[in-house]
Design brief:
Layout (H helix, E strand, L loop, with lengths): L5 H6 L7 E4 L3 E5 L7 E7 L6 H7 L1 H17 L8 E3 L14 E6 L7
Antiparallel strand pairs: 1-2, 2-3, 3-5, 4-5
């Protein structure tokens, strides 16, 4: 874990968050500035700065995150109605926290991209 990373601090319990999902590898927390009625950030406990670094160093972490998303979507019964997954990568991609994470958006009809 990176001691300066806000998500690492959340994972360690040093910064409060609203956890809605947790297993041994992944946490899901409510986004503090939601863009949809359901807006959850899925974060692996292993620190990596972006998708490319995660793929290069720990590709299994991606599988674990997407399994967590599947479990959460089924628990919340949004697996049938639908949801959107977003991962911002790099400053030009809109990434502001440099710990790989995925946004799950749901609870309303999404517009086409």
């Amino acid at each position: 874990m990176n001691d300066q990373c806000i998500f690492c601090k959340i994972i360690k319990g040093e910064i409060p968050s609203t956890k809605v999902f947790e297993n041994e590898n992944v946490i899901g927390i409510k986004d503090i500035q939601p863009a949809a009625p359901i807006h959850i950030l899925f974060i692996h406990r292993n620190h990596s700065k972006n998708i490319n670094e995660m793929c290069a160093n720990n590709p299994q972490d991606l599988v674990e995150i997407f399994k967590a998303i599947k479990e959460f979507s089924e628990q919340e019964k949004i697996d049938q109605s639908g949801f959107r997954i977003i991962a911002n990568t790099g400053a030009d991609g809109g990434q502001t926290v440099f710990h790989t994470h995925f946004h799950l958006l749901s609870g309303k009809k999404m517009h086409h991209l």
